Amino acid sequence: MLSSTGSGTMMQFGYTTFIKPMSVSLKWSRAIISLGMSFRIIVGGLLSVLIGPIIDRYGIGRIMFFSGLTASLCTYLITKVYSPWQFLVLFGIAGGFASAGAGEFAIGSVIPKWFIKKRGKALAFGTMGGVLVGVFITPIMAILMDNYGWKYGWFFISGFTLITIIPASFFMKRRPEDIGLLPDGIPMDNNYQEVHVSNNEISEGYSAMKTIVFWQLIIAFNLNGLAITGIVVHELSYLLDNNFSAYTAALIVSIHALSGIGGRFVWGYFVDRIAVKYCLAISSFGAALATVILLQATSIPVALLFAIIYGLNIGGEQLLNAVAWSEYFDRNILATIRGFSLPFQLLSRAAGPFIAGLLFSINGSYLIPFSLFIITLTCSSLMFLSINKPNLDHSLRT
Questions:
Q1: Residue 366 pLDDT > 70, yes or no?
Q2: 120 CB contacts (<8 Å, ≥6 apart)?
């Protein structure tokens, strides 16, 4: 949780506070600034292919340590940029490395190795960092930048990632068997035979690509992710454009994030009891409904209604994503499988913020991109419902 909180300051809830201030101060378009998040997601997805097998074989500690150092240094250097390409290089590469080595992908690949019976609840706690940023960090950054300027926001992030990700890296273990336990905290008995993850087994992990469910998940998560990143990154700017004050808009984003915490526990409870595909379908459809409400948000009560419904529904997206992959594939090579899937899965996540920023730059309104997101969320809901378990050996579904 500590690591995901540090990494989350550079994700949607943290990044949304920079869109308008940097655009006004540097005279860059919102499309250019949004492209920074797209670069970050693309780089993180590409690096996950390399990092996934390393996590499976050697653990996450050292990768998390260097991710934190890189993220802290480069976010500090962002305060010195004067050209868009410098910003894209620093935020895209540093953020991408932090994302792959200390963020959603890394945490979501490690936690399922430790839990089976209560995997949903464990992921609800472990992936909470991103929404904690929205509840506590986003208001601080919004107030800080409103009074002192956007550079102080990056100063804050630089220090915050250093004191969260680095300490967490020293406590990370590869899997419970490494400390004499089985998943769910069960003591290891004398009859247990140690399982080593070999290069051959990692290569076999790529056989997941031969299943229909692999590609169904890829398509559904792409449709879903296009909207989630696009809306969250531009949410604060949308509210500011609709004459909400910086403090009120930040409060609404915080309510969104706070309801996201509740959503994590709600989905963590239900996914341990009903099939993950139904949870994902309901979550996506609920997010589509919330986006319809957002387009009508000209008053605080309506904006708060959006924040609560949207937060409750997308709050569990990270844990449902991790559960969906661990539901069907071997936990010992889960990081490998997720690492290979992530570049495909993150295509739309990278495109979402840029598309919203580009269409805003063209039309001066978020109506068209947000309407597009309503359609993609609805389609993803239908896609999730169509998924069935792959025809694999039982050993690939533990």
A1: yes
A2: 267, 268, 269, 270, 271, 272, 319, 323
Residues 6+ apart with CB under 8 A from 256: 134, 235, 306, 307, 308, 310, 311
Is 185 a domain residue? Answer: no
**Domain presence at residue 189:** no
Mean pLDDT computed over 205-218: 77
> Tell me, what's the pLDDT at 288?
95
Helix (H) or strand (E) holding 181: strand 181-182
The answer to whether position 196 is within a domain reads no
How many domains is the chain built from? 1
Question: Other C-beta atoms within 10 Å of 72: how many?
Answer: 23
Is 396:329 a contact under the CB 8 Å cutoff?
Answer: yes
Find the CATH number of the domain harbouring 145. Answer: 1.20.1250.20
Q: Cα separation of 230 and 314, whole Å?
A: 13
- The per-residue pLDDT for 106 is 67
In tens, the pLDDT along 228-267 reads: 888 988 888 899 888 888 888 888 888 887 888 888 888 8
pLDDT in tens, 153-175: 888 888 888 888 888 888 877 77
Where would I find the H helices in the chain? 2-8, 12-15, 19-26, 30-58, 61-77, 84-102, 104-114, 119-126, 129-132, 138-148, 150-169, 199-205, 212-241, 246-271, 276-294, 300-314, 317-328, 334-345, 347-363, 367-385
Pick from 68, 78, 351: nearest CA to 222 = 351
Q: 34 CB contacts (<8 Å, ≥6 apart)?
A: 19, 233, 234, 353, 354, 356, 357, 358
Does position 120 have pLDDT exceeding 80, yes or no?
no
Cβ-count burial 185-218 (b if 16+ within 10 Å, e if not)? eeeeeeeeeeeebeeebbeebeebeebebbebbb
On whether residue 190 sits in a domain, the answer given is no
Which residue type is seen at 189? Answer: D
19 is in which domain, residue-wise? 2-176+202-397
Say how many CA atoms lie within 13 Å of 171 toward its Cβ: 9
